[in-house]
Design goal:
The structure holds two protein chains of two kinds. Chain A has two domains: about 170 residues, HUPs (Rossmann fold, 3-Layer(aba) Sandwich); about 120 residues, Rossmann fold, CATH 3.40.50.1220. Helix content of chain A is about 25%, strand content about 30%. Chain A contains eight helices and 18 strands. In chain A, strand 8 and strand 9 form a beta hairpin. Chain B is α/β, with parallel strands linked by helices. Chain B has a nine-stranded mixed beta sheet with strand order 9-8-7-10-6-1-4-5-11, sandwiched between helices. A two-stranded antiparallel ribbon of chain B has the order 2-3. In chain B, helix 2 crosses helix 5 and helix 3 crosses helix 4. The longest helix of chain B is centred in the N-terminal third of the chain and has 17 residues. The chains are: A alpha/beta, B alpha/beta. The interface between A and B is large, with 95 and 85 residues.
Chain lengths: ~325, ~260
């Protein structure tokens, strides 16, 4: 009888992804007495197990081999499938990251099980979980119900809190090897310009056409530095070549969920909103009092970005210095 | 090279969405449908690869009548032929059902490459391409922003969190694509005229032999709702200095986010 929740814990280069710990914490909150276990795949990763146990995993299924040093869909799927067969969970959770988007659907199809992704709320009905997710580029929310022995759910990063709760963290070694691998990661290049990663950032400062030109990014970057924020951009300025696509937030860019989103000189096209409408607090700074973004902002500042942002940086410096 | 491109007909992003009376889906009446923005990059890539390497391109789409115009749009841009997968049992399909239907249409077609947009507007699940790869037992690369084909090998670049990841693999394969891969061309008048004369092949569940595989639905939408209303915003008055001071104060004392 399928029971409990198995959580995929992503690691890259020996670093655990914070969003995976958020998914694990949510599993612990929802498990109501059933087992919460984790699966961790990579090479030389046994040292990460205590950190996973700290967030509530009673068992950690681990595939620690040279085969898994670099990500490959088929390699990681083999190890993950092995963990699923041993854990026999009612639900499999993962954070909705680039790796999970590549891997989880593969497993769902392999087990002929349903998958709902990018979930922001999980409702309960007896022993059943009903995931809720944004649909139609965030214009509606859908509550799903499963009719299956077990199901996969991926969770939007930065929505649930990662909270510690000690789990036994018993290690169970998986015997899977990466035998049939027809595509694999050969290299990874860390992006230079991004000091704080967008999908995990608590605060984001985003620039649109209102910043007037790429020579003005330093104005926003200073605010980012003062706040420890990530820098984002609208599609308009990415298409104009003012900044790399890595920074784009929106329908054809990244979806983010920060505590605070400061939109500077962004008009608020639907496609942009699709990427940031789940931000907890939205500040909009725009010269045009009729800009659509003001309909969604918690705080509206009608003014010139290049005048307001430096003042904001100053005020935050004062605030931080006084603490 | 024989290339399949999976496309989805989706509501135009500018369209205002209303929830249907039964709350199980959106109200489709009066909605304008377009080729999913993500699929446009897949269509363009297929046409470019054919121009470079020779071969044949086929667009495939599952859905009801809204699919016809979308398939004609792909033909007008330069896709060679199109297949419409249409059946009452395909309506409101979940991702796994969609992947099974597409797999049935693709599997014996002799394709070297299957291209898809990374996600379909609607469910926005970002799941069908990888499910399709599993069902077809093919290697994959997802959310790709650069693609090179070299004989029977592919090299793909993905934008992941804070980095660029390079994937190498063998063909045939399933590749899902993201903005940045290319600049989609607009259909030419000549293309639109030629597309009108092309026949779109229609296949139903029986023709695809997929009826029993999709008979049970393991996930359904219980209820659809509008997102929670955001409280109306507070306008911050004064010159830049005054605005900055007030705003920082509110973000700390009222919003508690700094």
């Amino acid at each position: 009888m399928a029971q409990g929740i198995l959580v995929f814990i992503e690691q890259r280069g020996g670093h655990l992804r914070k969003a995976s710990l958020e998914a694990l914490s949510e599993a612990v909150r929802l498990a109501s007495g059933q087992a919460v276990t984790a699966v961790l795949i990579g090479e030389n990763i046994k040292g990460l197990v205590p950190s996973v146990a700290k967030y509530g995993a009673s068992k950690v299924f681990i595939a620690d081999k040279g085969d898994f040093a670099q990500y490959s869909t088929e390699g990681y799927a083999a190890a993950f499938a092995d963990a699923i067969k041993q854990a026999q969970p009612q639900y499999v959770f993962a954070a909705s990251t680039s790796m999970a988007k590549d891997l989880l659907p593969r497993l769902a199809a392999r087990f002929d099980a349903p998958l709902v992704t990018d979930v922001m709320v999980i409702k309960t009905e007896g022993a059943n979980l009903l995931p809720v997710k944004p649909m139609y580029s965030g214009k509606t929310y859908g509550t799903y119900v499963f009719d299956a022995e077990f199901a996969f759910i991926t969770i939007r990063p930065n929505v649930f809190a990662a909270t510690e709760s000690s789990g036994a963290g018993e290690i169970v070694e998986l015997s899977a090897t990466a035998d049939k691998v027809r595509a694999k990661v050969t290299e990874t290049h860390t992006s230079a310009g991004q000091k704080v990663e967008l999908s995990e950032a608590a605060i984001i400062v985003a620039g649109g056409r209102g910043i007037k030109g790429p020579e003005n990014w330093p104005v926003l970057q200073s605010l980012c530095d003062e706040l420890g924020a990530a820098l984002a951009a609208s599609r308009a300025v990415v298409d104009a070549g003012w900044i790399d696509h890595q920074h784009q937030v929106g329908q054809t860019g990244k979806t983010v969920s920060p505590q605070l989103y400061i939109a500077c000189g962004i008009s608020g096209a639907i496609q942009h909103l699709a990427g940031m409408s789940s931000s907890k607090v939205i500040v909009a700074i725009n010269k045009d009092a009729d800009a659509p973004i003001f309909k969604f902002a918690n705080y509206a500042v009608v003014g010139d970005v290049l005048e307001v942002v430096p003042k904001l940086t100053e005020e935050f410096k004062k605030l931080h210095d006084n603490n | 090279m024989k290339i399949a491109v999976c496309v989805k007909a989706v509501p135009d992003t500018e369209t205002r969405i209303a929830i249907a009376a039964d709350k199980q889906n959106i109200e489709f009446a009066g909605v304008k449908f377009i080729t999913s923005p993500y699929d446009e990059y897949a269509v363009e890539e297929a046409i470019r690869l054919k121009e470079k390497l020779g071969g044949e391109t086929v667009a495939i789409s599952m859905g009801a009548d809204e699919v016809t115009d979308v398939l004609r749009d792909t033909l007008a841009r330069g896709i060679d032929s199109a297949i419409h997968l249409k059946d009452a049992s395909f309506l409101h399909a979940d991702t796994l059902t969609t992947a099974k239907v597409l797999a049935a249409a693709i599997k014996d077609g002799g394709y070297d490459l299957v291209l898809c947009g990374q996600q379909g507007v609607g469910g926005d699940n970002n799941a069908v391409p990888a499910m399709l790869a599993e069902l077809l037992d093919l290697p994959q690369a997802t959310i790709v922003v650069k693609l090179e084909i070299d004989g029977t090998k592919f090299k793909a670049e993905r934008e992941i969190e804070g980095a660029h990841e390079f994937v190498e693999g063998t063909l045939p394969a399933v590749i899902s694509v993201q903005k940045g891969l290319n600049e989609p061309r607009y259909p030419s008048i000549k293309g639109v005229m030629a597309a009108r004369r092309k026949e779109i092949l229609v296949k139903d569940a029986a023709a695809l032999n997929v009826a029993s595989a999709i008979a049970t639905r393991k996930v359904k939408i219980k209820e659809m709702a509008m997102p929670p209303e955001r409280p109306s915003g507070k306008r911050i008055e004064g010159d830049a200095s005054a605005q900055a001071k007030t705003l920082v104060g509110l973000l700390r004392s009222e919003a508690h986010v700094v």
